C-alpha cells in the first residue's frame, strides 16, 4: 500500500491517480520509501509478537543488524519513529472508506464568493448607521432647543432667561433660537442696558458677527429710547451713530425725528420745533437725505443782511462728520429778499433738492425766482433757477415723480403772462418746459379729478399752502387725506363731495386709523387740523 504525496490518502499499488484529490502518482516508488515501509511492517510484526508472547524475539543477527541499520538510517531515534508510526495509521483510519467508489469522493472546486457584494454591503450598512445617528442627533437637538426655549419664555428671572436662551442656541444654531436670545437681551436692556451688553459679550463666541451686530443694535435701540425719555438727545444721537456702525437702520428708530429736531435746534440756535414741516415753516430749516451719506443733511436758509439794496440770502449746509454735525458749505443769493424754503422734492430721477423762492425786488412781490439746490461731494450745488410771478409751490404736473416750477420764463427776467412749467436737471443744463395741466392744484376746483392738495401724501404742507383757505376748504383738505384710502363718510356733505371725484373709491374695511397713512399724511392732517382751530 502507498499514500498520496499530496493529500496523504491510501492508494492501491498500481493506481496512477489519487481518487481523493486527483494527484498524479509516480509508480517508481523511491527506494527509501520502500525500505521505510518494510521497516514499519517489521516493527508492527515485532510489536504484535511481543504483545502476544510476552517475550522478546531474537532475530537473526544478520537480519536484525540489517534492519537496525536501515531503521537507524531512516529514523534517527525511537521518538521520531513513534511519531512516524502514527502517521500511516491515522491516515488509514481517516481514509478507510476511500476505496469505496462514490461521487462524493470526487474533488469539486469551491464556488467563488461575489467580491463586489462582500465589499459593498458593509459600506451600505455603515452609511445607513451614520445617517440614523445624524437624524437622531438632529431631532434630539430640536427637542432640546424647544425645551430650553419653553423654559426661557416661562421664566421671570432675567438671569435664568438668558441662561436658557443661551442653552437653546448651544443646542440648535437656528434663526429661531437666535431670535429668542436677541429678544431676551433686548428685554433685559429695557431695565438695564449695561447688563444686557455684558450678557451679549458672554455669548458673543457662540454667534456669528452678523448676529452679534443685529443683537447689539437692538440693545442700543432700547438705550436710545431711555436717553430720549431723559431728554438726553445728543447722547441719543451718539447711540444712533453706533447703531449705524453696527449696520443697523438707525433712521427707523421711533425717536429719530425728535432727536434730529433737538440736534438742529442746538446746532442752529433756534427754538425746538415739534415736526419737520413746522421746522421748515417757522425756521426755514430742513433735514433730509440729499446724497448717499446714511445721515441726513441739514440745510438752513438765513437772511444775510437788512432789507437794503445789498440784502442777500445765505444757505448753510451741515453734514455729520465723526458723529457730530458741522457746517461744511455756504451759498449766497445776492440781492434777494423774502426768502422762503418751499420744500424738499425730487428735481431729477432719485435726486432730492431744496426749493428756495425769493424776491429780486424789495418793493415788488411779482419779481420772484425759485432756485433748486442739491448736495454733492459735501457741497451745495445750484441745479437751476426759474423766474416766476408768484410763490407758487412746485408740482409734479406730469406725474413722473419730478417736481416742476411754474414760471413765465426760464430766467429771472419776467416775460409774458403765460404760465408754463419748467424742470431743472442734475447736470445743471438749461431748464426745459414740461407739458402739464398748468393748473394750480392748491385751489379748490370743480373738476371731478382735482384735489385741494394733490401731493399731501408726498410732501409736507407749509403755512403758505394753508393761508387764505376757509375752514370749509381746510376741512375738505383734511378729509381728502382719508378719502384717498377709501374712507366711507357718513356726513352727507363729505359723502356728496368725494363721491363726485373719479379718484375716490369707497373701502368699507378702512376705519380711518393712522396705521394706513404715511408720515406725510399724518403730519399734514394734524397741521390742517391746527389751522382749523385757529
Automatic annotation (TrEMBL):
Gene3D superfamilies: 1.20.58.1690. Residues 449-533 form the YARHG domain. The keyword Transmembrane applies. It comes from the Bacteria. Keywords: Membrane, Transmembrane, Transmembrane helix. The chain crosses the membrane at residues 120-140. The keyword Transmembrane applies. Pfam families: YARHG, Zn_Ribbon_1. InterPro entries: YARHG_dom (IPR025582), YARHG_sf (IPR038434), Zinc_ribbon_dom (IPR026870). This is YARHG domain protein. It comes from Clostridium saccharobutylicum DSM 13864.
